[in-house]
UniProtKB/TrEMBL annotation:
Single annotated GO MF: helicase activity
Start and end residues of each Helicase C-terminal domain: 277-434
UniProt keyword Disulfide bond, yes or no: no
Keyword Disulfide bond: no
Name the UniProt record assigns to this protein: DEAD/DEAH box helicase
């Protein structure tokens, strides 16, 4: 029995842990396979690597480095802690020694800062590495442009601060040899589609300076990495996927929090929250000296886990331990984030609750355990997070704690869906016209577009350009297309999907700016009465002013959290694809969605029980997107009615559960998608269940749901049917976002409806 299996038995197999340990999976360790250093590697670099403890490279590092050095675009898609950084460092170091430059892109500042720290410690010969992002002081930026030969940045800064000022970067771009795209699996959905267009703009600007850099991408293990990299860069890419690095053994536990005995909405049973379970586990592991990182889905959740763990330790008079637990999330000052990373790395901190900002390749050595508080969105992300533990080569522990959610509940009772499946392909659509249009405008402002540029942006560019000319955004001249306005074209592209300028969160008493939130998210996050957490302190929103882009808050300590609720209407614009299974039609196409936040729930922070509901008066938001929807025939409806099935409640319950299960089949989060159900939709004339992408123009998630429709709906039925509740609960058919108060809902009706949809024979029918 391993150390961790004994720990798990002690924590869960006695009366003190009423939550259920549903499964423990043992991932065996493995030995590594090394090769000789490539012959072109600088002897001084080899010497410095040896001093840093790297005696020889792993075989996959050499394979990727050799491809890049030979000029092939390459993606290295291997496991967490497999040393992908060295694979791109070797050709990059050779390039800068030869007078070239390197541009490194990461999706987060934390990862770029960690990479910079490692480069400064290693000090490769001739390398002048520097970060260029939103935290870089103004006086430093000119030095970076003039002197740095290894620049670490992110897609946001490349989009806004580099490409539009390419003349100031002329010397750097002229000598650019490599573009490193780290953690490439994070570039998915709308964000990934934007980054794909930014990389095309970069290639075009480089061509202006007669450079053609090689792209080197690093990714967690993913399906079809060559195709993902090709769609991201627009170039042919070769893949290295055989992982030759040693692996620490991992004990991976699945945990379902217990039912509390509390009554939730409409009397439904309520489970203990995953954040409360994670906080207790973090406190207990801290007592044993176990360095633990808890991944939490939201900024607020990360704060709650840290505060609750600190409280549990303080109430036990373990104040020294309480001070060794903290939260980490975006929104903190850069110095604070770096300080927390160093404290966790050194062991000064024993517990850190983080959003997925630390999911990436930040080198946090010495971690023993990782807690995953809810499904992180994809299997790739799950294994990436779990891989943060065991980075000293010692056995590690990962614990997945299910939220009160259909997908999480399904997974803890179907471990084969976690441990028996390959990771997903990354979904992105660079040809989405709502993505492509703004980037064509930005490209035209950078350098007027020509006919020859259409090859860079793909076949979808020509009709989008025509539309931009018709709208007066671009002007067509014999020499090409020109930007017509005085404002910056890059402001048109909202690459993180914010949907508008950020809303500033201001302390009404002091006037201090606490943080910002995307305009689209503000309706649900900082509405009047919302609870907002910041650096361990809680605030209540006094007023959200959308016209001025400000949310005024005041300090408070409510014993509740808030959940926004919205209502949605949907219109079918066109049907692009259709498949039929007997009485069932499954379709995919373009839709118009109208959404409005109409109120919010107050939930007890300890039990999750509903304390009350408050109405809100916020404006409606509309988007054109893509959806998958399914109908059953009139004959099937008649059979269901004859059995007493209430069709509205059955469709509504199936909608909620299918939204919860789609992330198992598409690289999305349930908050990336939405749904509508009706017993009679105006456009189909039938009972219809819709699930749509929550992004303008679509993000590819609904399309993936259409492709996996039968497997998706089969899993949805299983999640509902096997839930231990009687009439429905948040673990199966209730949704915290439901604007109709989770009414009507029918658990048994949803199972029968899905039986009809799947063409299943039912005994006694």
């Amino acid at each position: 029995m391993s150390r961790w299996e004994a720990t798990l038995q002690r924590l869960w197999r006695d009366h003190t842990r009423p939550s259920r340990l549903t499964h423990v999976h043992r991932v065996p360790g493995g030995r590594g396979l090394t090769e000789d250093w490539p012959g072109w590697t600088s002897p001084s670099l080899v010497e410095r690597l040896a001093e840093a403890g790297v005696a020889a490279p792993w075989a996959h590092q050499v394979a990727a480095a050799e491809l890049a050095h030979a000029g092939s675009n390459v993606i290295i898609a291997t496991g967490t802690a497999s040393g992908k950084s060295l694979a791109f460092l070797l050709p990059a170091a050779a390039a800068v020694e030869g007078g070239g430059t390197v541009l490194y892109l990461s999706p987060t500042k934390a990862l770029a800062a960690d990479q910079l720290r490692a480069l400064e410690e290693l000090a490769p010969p001739g390398m002048r590495a520097a970060a260029y992002d939103g935290d870089t002081p103004g006086e430093t930026r000119a030095w970076v442009r003039a002197h740095a030969n290894y620049v670490l940045t992110n897609p946001d800064m490349l989009h806004r601060g580099i490409l539009g000022r390419h003349a100031a970067w002329a010397g750097f771009l002229r000598r650019l040899r490599y573009v490193v795209v780290d953690e490439a699996h994070r570039y998915r959905g709308v964000f990934g589609s934007h980054v794909a267009q930014i990389l095309r703009r970069l290639r075009r600007v480089c061509a202006r300076y007669r450079s053609e850099p090689t792209f080197v991408l690093a990714s967690a293990t993913a399906a079809a990495p060559e195709e993902t990299a090709r769609r991201l860069t627009g170039l042919p890419v070769r893949a290295v996927t055989d992982d030759a690095a040693p692996r620490a053994a991992l004990s991976f536990a699945l945990v379902e929090p217990e039912l509390t005995g509390q009554a939730g909405e409409r009397g439904a049973p309520v489970r203990r929250t995953a954040t409360a379970e994670a906080a207790d586990l973090m406190a207990e592991l801290a007592r044993e000296g176990v360095r633990t990182l808890a991944f939490v889905r939201s900024r607020q959740g990360a704060e709650v886990v840290a505060i609750s763990a600190q409280r549990a330790l303080s109430e036990a008079r373990e104040h020294d331990l309480a001070r060794r637990v903290a939260a980490y999330r975006a929104g903190y000052l850069a110095a604070d984030r770096r300080g927390l990373e160093d404290a966790l790395r050194s062991g000064e901190l024993l517990g850190l609750a983080s959003t997925n900002a630390l999911e990436l390749g930040v080198d946090i050595t010495g971690l023993d355990a990782v807690l995953l508080t809810g499904w992180p969105g994809t299997l790739a992300a799950l294994w990436q997070q779990a891989g943060r533990a065991g980075r000293r080569g010692e056995d590690a522990l990962a614990v997945f704690i299910a939220r009160d959610d259909p997908l999480d509940t399904y997974l803890v009772h179907h471990p084969e869906a976690v441990f028996g499946r390959p990771v997903e392909s990354t979904v992105l659509d660079p040809d989405n016209p709502y993505v492509l249009g703004p980037h064509l405008c930005a490209a035209a402002e950078e350098i007027p577009l020509t006919e020859g540029d259409l090859e860079v942006f793909g076949p979808a560019a020509e009709p989008v350009l025509a539309d931009l000319v018709d709208r007066g955004m671009l002007r067509r001249r014999p020499r090409g297309w020109f930007w017509t306005r005085r404002d910056r074209a890059c402001d048109l592209a909202d690459i993180r999907g914010a949907g508008g300028p950020p809303v500033q969160i201001v302390d009404a008493e002091s006037g201090q700016l606490l943080g910002t939130v995307d305009e689209a998210a503000a309706h649900g996050a900082v509405h009047d009465g919302a609870v907002y957490l910041h650096q361990g302190l809680s605030y209540v929103v006094e007023r959200l002013d959308l016209d001025d882009g400000v949310a005024l808050v005041h300090g408070a300590n409510p014993e509740y959290s808030t959940w926004a609720r919205d209502v949605t209407e949907i219109e079918i614009l066109s049907t692009l694809r259709e498949q039929r299974w007997g009485d069932t039609a499954v379709c995919f196409g373009d839709v118009r969605v109208a959404r409005q936040v109409v109120g919010y729930l107050k939930r007890d922070v300890r039990t999750g029980s509903v304390l009350g509901e408050q109405p809100l008066d916020l404006p409606e938001r509309t988007l054109r997107s893509r959806a998958v929807w399914w109908t059953v025939s009139t004959e099937a409806e008649q059979r269901l009615r004859a059995e007493g099935v209430e069709l509205r409640g059955a469709a509504h319950a199936a909608e909620h559960a299918s939204i919860g299960l789609l992330p198992l089949f598409a690289t999305c989060d349930r908050w990336d998608i939405g749904g509508v159900s009706t017993a009679l939709h105006a456009d189909t004339g039938l009972l219809t269940v819709f699930v749509y992408d929550g992004h303008e123009g679509g993000a590819g998630f609904a399309e993936r749901g259409f492709a996996a429709a039968r497997e998706w709906l089969t899993a949805t039925r299983a999640a509902i049917a096997t839930c231990e509740c009687t009439d429905g609960c948040p673990s199966c058919i209730q949704s915290p976002k439901c604007g109709n108060g989770n009414d009507p809902l029918s658990k048994s009706g949803a199972v029968r409806l899905l039986d009809e949809a799947l063409g299943r024979a039912v005994a006694g029918r």
